[in-house]
Amino acid sequence: MPEQLPVGAYTHLNFAFAFIDPKSFKVAPMSAADTELYSRFTGLKDSNPGLQTWISIGGWSMNDPDQPTATTFSDLAGSSSAQSAFFSSLISFLQTWGFDGVDIDWEYPVATERSGKPQDFQNYVSFLKNLRSALGGSGHNYGLTITVPSSYWYMQHFDIVAIEKVVDWFNVMTYDLHGTWDSTDKFIGPIVNAHTNLTEIDLTMDLFWRNKIDPDKIVMGLGFYGRSFTLSDPSCTKPGCGFSGGGNPGKCSASAGTLMYSEIQDILAAGAKATMDKDAAVKQVVWDNNQWVSFDDEETLRLKTDYANGKCLGGAMVWAASTDDTVGSAAQAYIKTNGLVSRSLFGGGANPKEEDVLSACIWGECGKDCPDNSLPAQRSDGKNRGNAGIYTGCSDGQTRNYCCPKGQEVPTCQWRGGAPFCDGKCHSGEVQVSSDTSATGSECWTGHKVLCCTSTKSDAGIGQCKWEGSAPFCGKHGRVGEHYGCDESDRYEETYDSLGAGGEEYCFSGYKSFCCTKPPPFTGCGW
């Protein structure tokens, strides 16, 4: 269930998968039960500021020759009318359920054995360009990525040079390098090999470097599962030995040849001993006489993330968070290697100390009272008196209170900037603490309103920082991914975002910068 995911180990979560209806070309749930999960999945952002939730569309089985969706991607990429229907459906889907982006997981364009067509090579590029344009015209800064295979045999069918200009990044499946399917490969055959291997991963990356792909646009795949085999000869247990079939199914995975991380941990807990292949950065274990599986743990995950950092890759991704155990053992290993170790594993971000919370005004949680020892700031504008609240990040009409410490002067606040042409600015002696396009009930046609509070000891720090850059083109030069930066030399960029203070217009391209004075008024900041 979404609430059981160790979200603190990740900056982005993808819901895998949604399909495409082969007749209407509208986004369709993979199963009827998924629709109930969408809002719970995107709702994880409520208690995890900065988390992004994406939808992945496609997957390996969508191109299975015996499926009605076998040629759907090819049909979609080759038809402008089908694309129009898909784009409209997708944008509605993203808006309805609160997703932040879409990952297109078309793994086998062109490949005839996987229902591909020769024209897919060019059509995929055109499709992605059209999709990027449609997303950009939606009024939201939706992300766009694609998932690509790691083998040259399938990657040759992607025009990665042209696609790089369109997508935010490539998710590279540097797992599933080997499995029982090797038995029918005339170049490999039925021999045991690890499903993830750093030496082979390096060869995959070389395919990108030969095409001068920016390393920052490469996200390397890691596996929270293992590929298992039944050995042909129990006395021959190393890579290169023969196998007679997939390993026995696990209790949960229930699939021959695959074991979840949690199932592998049970095998180790029962006394099986793992061995390390340092060059390949993978471990393997033999048990029950003839069962063999390869897997990653903290030691091998660190070797792989060190490799990714050394190559200046954009990041790493995991397949799949749902294969972890109930206490997040794999995520606990991973979080020690990916720079997020200070975060709470099961949500809520880093746990603030009480004295930090109570030393300055903070935005409270959606629909909840202010924390102990703090009071909600009040509005002072006109007849709309009461708690100063914002809707940012909340659902079902809930709001967040602006909570300030007891024992100090509590500021009063009011919205400034009248509709429809809003140009909200705070007065002297006030600090801007939020923004919105529809506060006080009237909608801004352009610009946004700002929530201004009297400057007191408890909210003075926020007055030393401000968001710079304006929608829709937030970068100074209009380049994709560009940060606006700080106009004043005595300020530095603390962080960046496509939305800014919340409630503002989204950036179609680039990012707004949160610029603070030096020395910084805050320490230990994080989303």
Automatic annotation (TrEMBL):
Known catalytic reactions: Random endo-hydrolysis of N-acetyl-beta-D-glucosaminide (1->4)-beta-linkages in chitin and chitodextrins
GO molecular function ontology, one term from the record: endochitinase activity
Superkingdom to which the source organism belongs: Eukaryota
Record bears the keyword Hydrolase: yes
SUPFAM superfamilies for this protein: (Trans)glycosidases, Chitinase insertion domain
Any one GO BP annotation for this protein: polysaccharide catabolic process
Keyword flag ATP-binding: no
Keyword annotations from UniProtKB, A to Z: Carbohydrate metabolism, Chitin degradation, Glycosidase, Hydrolase, Polysaccharide degradation
Family per record: Belongs to the glycosyl hydrolase 18 family. Chitinase class V subfamily.
Name under which the protein is recorded: chitinase
Organism: Aspergillus thermomutatus
Species classification: Eukaryota, Fungi, Dikarya, Ascomycota, Pezizomycotina
